[in-house]
Amino acid sequence: xxAPHQRTSGGARVAxxxxxxxxxxPVLLIGGWTAAATRQRGGFDQVRETISALAAIxxxxxxxxxxxxxxxxxxxxxxxxxLHAARLPGRLVLAGGGLATVLVAVxxxxxxxxxxxxxxxxxxxxxxxxxxxxxxxxxREAPALLHPGPSLGAAAALLxxxxxxxxxxATDSGRVGLAERAAAGAQALWPLVVAWGCRSAPEWREAT
Length: 208
Prior knowledge:
Elements: E1 5-7, H1 16-38, H2 52-55, H3 63-82, H4 88-106, H5 117-137, H6 148-171, H7 176-200, E2 204-206
Antiparallel strand pairs: 1-2
């Protein structure tokens, strides 16, 4: 039978390499879409056009965004492995979001811009998983950012951003790229916020 959760002084609830992977995630994503956009001949409107368009078959230097997406997914998988303070269901969903992100890179949009069911499915899975994982990761005894209030609030905010992206996709209002970047950027930043909070707080561990 497991003993109750305990707090001890010093130490951390996330390995140093998890902090590194969580910090690399937004750098890869934002740096990737910025660098790839500058390589598109004829210009690229990041407010109107999606991140996936930068990695689509036929895009100029598509390897930049493809590599960034694959690296982002690996970062989420690594962070999920390292974030010991979070509950296992949340970590598994974060890892699932990371895997789905890697698959977004593996299954790009086609050159003819006709869409792809596989790409849409894995991208949708990634967005949903990376939005809801905080709601499944909270612990009352964990550091403050993993308490129910911040975790559920973060999930609600991330889901709202994903919802905005969905509305922009459905209405084709010309702000699809902006909405997608807001949602994806926030999803890349939240694991870093949590990892940093866990790393800097007094040690928490579950005794057995």
